[in-house]
Amino acid sequence: DVKVTQSSRYLVKRTGEKVFLECVQDMDHENMFWYRQDPGLGLRLIYFSYDVKMKEKGDIPEGYSVSREKKERFSLILESASTNQTSMYLCASGRTHPNNEQFFGPGTRLTVL
Amino acid sequence: AQSVAQPEDQVNVAEGNPLTVKCTYSVSGNPYLFWYVQYPNRGLQFLLKYITGDNLVKGSYGFEAEFNKSQTSFHLKKPSALVSDSALYFCAVRDASGGSYIPTFGRGTSLIVHP
What we know:
The complex is a heterodimer. Chain A is mostly beta strands. Chain A contains no helices and eleven strands.
């Protein structure tokens, strides 16, 4: 059974802390994505990666960075967490060709106090 | 540019009745279209996709979707709704000619099936 796993389901952090969200996929997918999901706003793309060490900004990259040192792992980093980064974070992976669907992790609900 | 619209924030249907969740799209070339479902506190799960060929696509859990090129729509349907179908549904599009890695998602439609 194919899987995308995320390191935490729920996370509570304080303002100013550095936060790491980890995502691992076991499908040998080239592409990996980080989204945040907020009520009424749908999914918004933060960053994506199409290969190891390669990354591109999505729609809302401000306040975030990413790391992809290995093909199966894609990390999202909040350099200095703020309360407006309280959200559900979803990781996804997929093959390069655009007719391929994405596979999503279970999500991390992050609360920044 | 590519875009997708889900005109209804919420759809209410009685159990046993047919359901439709609407999606319209805009792409400059041909579309690849996807439906995903999200149950509470879970990630998105792929339901079905349209690539080419038959306009009626069948997917998981008894869902199907009809591709209509002239109306640029890809509505999700099910003949008989179940209470367990209550969830958030997302439509997504990729432009086949653009070769983009990135799909565009709609804002989601909350489906509520009443017993």
